[in-house]
Design goal:
The complex is a heterodimer of chains A (249) and B (311). Chain A is α/β, with parallel strands linked by helices and 249 residues long. Chain A has one domain: HUPs (Rossmann fold, 3-Layer(aba) Sandwich), CATH 3.40.50.620. Chain A is built from six helices and 15 strands. In chain A, the strands form three sheets. In chain A, strands 11-10-9-12-8-1-6-7-13 form a nine-stranded mixed sheet, with helices on both faces. In chain A, helix 2 packs across helix 5. Chain A is globular. Chain B has two domains: 164 residues, 3-Layer(aba) Sandwich (Rossmann fold); 115 residues, TPP-binding domain (Rossmann fold, 3-Layer(aba) Sandwich), CATH 3.40.50.1220. Chain B has 311 residues and is α/β, with parallel strands linked by helices. Chain B has a seven-stranded parallel sheet, sandwiched between helices. Chain B has a five-stranded parallel sheet with strand order 13-12-14-15-16. Chain B contains eight helices and 16 strands. In chain B, helix 2 links the parallel strand 2 and strand 3. The chains are: A alpha/beta (249), B alpha/beta (311). The interface between A and B is large, with 82 and 90 residues. Strand 15 of chain A pairs parallel with strand 16 of chain B, so a sheet runs across the interface. The structure holds flavin-adenine dinucleotide (FAD). Flavin-adenine dinucleotide sits at the interface of chains B and A. Chain A: Keywords: Electron transport, Transport. Chain A: Heterodimer of an alpha and a beta subunit. Chain A: GO terms for molecular function: electron transfer activity. Chain A: The electron transfer flavoprotein serves as a specific electron acceptor for other dehydrogenases. It transfers the electrons to the main respiratory chain via ETF-ubiquinone oxidoreductase (ETF dehydrogenase). Chain A: InterPro entries: ETF_a/b_N, ETF_b, ETF_beta_N, Rossmann-like_a/b/a_fold.
């Protein structure tokens, strides 16, 4: 493979507790810790492993998001990616529009493989990779827990509801990552310094001639229904007594 | 408004997920068309034809559809799409794989993981691992929806079977090739639809202990077995047992969490259970904040006592 393209998204850190705005307009991200989406980080790691195994020449990362997402790209560069592009936009962009922007990036970069996270942990949509594959007319392997490249084909193990499924794909292809694909590396300080010098190009959605208008109107964002607080019981037999009394067992 | 529901099945049995998605769609359409795409899947079409709320069953039988791969299924659905205002699938691994592919080809922004149908164009869906619920209105002419099945009960079976019509898969070159599968076999009830789920976390310590502790309790309660991500990552349990934001979402009558701390990503998959029981030796574990009944203590001592108390 020559180039692997890895789209990455900046999201609210997975350890942070989202605050729902009282006016129901969305999640208040001000002052919150932002990080690379964990599934995207796994995708970067997998691309780097393919490169380090001599199976790909170059890893290019791309993000669609606000100026601050440069930090997310710098992190991917510090992990070892070669180049980065930010398509800068402050508003949130829906997966369909992201897929269209990525199609345009694929046109420029001509990658053999697009490796991306199966879902972003903010909107939890789980759509972008499949949509991109559709727009490109490429094969897809979603929810990958193992990826090998042999004799010009990708052999992907997928996590499915009933167990594991294995697919073999010709290139070019789209693969989306699941949690167990790998454990991403930590970035050493010298690499973080080096990453500052790696090329990071900044563009705008308009440069790609893509309509990114929203299709879904968000009418409200509310906190979920809470659970009422429960009770502590001292012993197993007390628990069984309570469950029986409530008709649960 | 006509609605097409893509059935989830294994060529022999229609899954419970399909019947649940059907009842979600009942708010939009009382005669949903169900598409069974598979190979030698005639029996599945027969089962779908008897579900209440189905108007017609479309059966596409083709070797290329044997494993539900995204490319042929998407092309098939696309060939039928013209007649439908709503195209939906349960949010199973199959539905999540295929439907966005169809949506992109139709230039529609999909609404994923619908937990409530507010009106034919407005839906509720969880975001941020269930820490918020978004109310979204689709402005696309066609609506493409995946349904979070744990939020709906299964549609019932009626006495009459609606007609089954055969449809053909358009010719095409399918690039991805099926290369085999390793399916978990279990005589336990299915995790996604079980009435009782017993789940284990990192505390179990090994695959042997996981089985030894959870197996008999699940057996006694006729429960399905679930696991936290930590337990799956460590190899104590199979990947298809993971409950959570990125695993399966369950809403059983009773969920028993053994040695699970209650990270938000885990709660995302089980906090809609009717009754939650937590057993954890750390009294400050966040799982206790959602538990109806909590026991602070060592699960290796309490679980055997629990079995004894159940008799
Ligand atoms: C992107 C992303 C997605 C994720 N998706 C999921 C998901 O889908 N599902 C999921 O579960 N997690 C998910 N996680 C992981 C999640 O954040 C937690 O790390 C995980 O749920 C922890 O699993 P655990 O509770 O088994 O382990 P721990 O957090 O280590 O908890 C173990 C618990 O066992 C208790 N314990 C130890 N010994 C005993 C004993 N003898 N008796 C009783 N109690 C004992 C401890 O007090 C502790 O509370 C995700 C994380 C990320 C970043």
């Amino acid at each position: 493979m020559k180039t692997i393209l890895v789209p990455v998204k900046m999201v609210l850190d997975s350890n942070a507790r989202p605050r729902v705005r009282t006016d129901e307009s969305g999640i208040d991200l001000s002052g919150m810790r932002m990080s690379i989406n964990p599934f995207c980080e796994i995708a970067v790691e997998e691309a780097l492993r393919l490169k380090e195994a001599g199976l790909a020449e170059e890893v290019v990362v791309v993000s669609i998001g606000p100026a601050k997402a440069q930090e997310t790209l710098r992190q991917a560069l510090a992990m070892g990616a070669d180049r980065a592009t930010l398509i800068e936009i402050d508003e949130t962009v829906e997966p369909l529009a992201v897929a269209k922007l990525l199609r345009a990036v694929v046109g420029e970069e001509q990658p053999d493989l697009v490796l991306l996270g199966k879902q972003a942990i903010d909107d939890d949509c789980n759509q972008t990779g499949q949509m991109l594959a559709a727009l490109l007319g490429w094969p897809q392997a979603t929810f990958a827990s193992a990826v090998r490249f042999e004799d010009g084909r990708l052999l992907v193990t997928r996590e499915i509801d009933a167990g594991l499924q294995r697919l073999s794909l010709p290139l070019p292809a789209v693969v989306t990552t699941d949690l167990r694909l790998n454990e991403p590396r930590h970035c050493a300080l010298p690499n973080i310094m080096k990453a500052r010098k790696k090329p990071l190009k900044i563009g705008a959605p308009a440069d790609y001639g893509v309509d990114i208008g929203r299709r879904l109107k968000i009418l409200a964002v509310r906190p979920p229904a809470g659970r009422k607080s429960g009770i502590r019981v001292a012993t197993a037999s007390e628990l069984v007594g309570d469950l029986r009394a409530a008709g649960i067992v | 408004m006509t609605t097409l529901l893509i059935a989830d099945h294994d060529n022999r049995m229609l899954s419970d997920a399909t019947a649940r998605a059907l009842s979600a769609l009942g708010a939009i359409d009382d005669a949903v068309h169900v598409l069974v795409a598979g190979h030698q899947a005639g029996p599945v079409a027969g089962q779908a034809a008897k579900l209440r709320g189905v108007g017609r069953v479309l059966l596409a039988d083709d070797e290329a559809l044997a494993h539900g791969l995204a490319e042929p299924v998407a092309v098939l659905v696309l060939s039928l799409a013209g007649g439908y205002r709503v195209i939906a699938a349960p949010a199973t691994s199959g539905g999540k794989d295929v439907l966005p592919r169809v949506a992109a080809l139709l230039d529609v922004m999909q609404v994923s993981d619908v937990v409530r149908v507010v009106s034919p164009d407005t839906f509720e869906r969880p975001v941020y691992a269930g820490n918020a619920v978004a109310v979204v209105q689709s402005t696309d002419e066609k609506k493409l929806l995946t349904i979070r099945t744990s939020a709906f009960s299964a549609a019932g079976v009626g006495d009459v079977a609606v007609p089954v019509e055969e449809v053909r898969v358009p010719d095409g070159v399918w690039q991805a090739r099926f290369d085999g599968e390793t399916l978990s076999s279990s005589d336990r009830p299915d995790l996604a639809s079980a009435r009782i789920v017993v789940s284990g976390g990192r505390a179990l310590g090994s695959a042997e202990k996981f089985q030894e502790v959870l197996g008999p309790l699940a057996e006694r309660l006729h429960a399905a077995i679930g696991a936290s991500r930590a337990a799956v990552d460590a190899g104590y349990a199979a990947n298809d047992l993971q409950v959570g934001q990125t695993g399966k979402v369950v809403a059983p009558d009773l969920y028993i969490a053994l040695g699970i701390s209650g990270a938000i990503q885990h709660l995302a998959g089980m906090k809609d259970a009717k009754v939650i029981v937590a057993i954890n030796k750390d009294e400050d574990a966040p799982i206790f904040q959602v538990a109806d009944y909590g026991i602070v203590g060592d699960l290796f001592e309490i679980v055997p006592e629990l079995e004894k108390a159940l008799g």
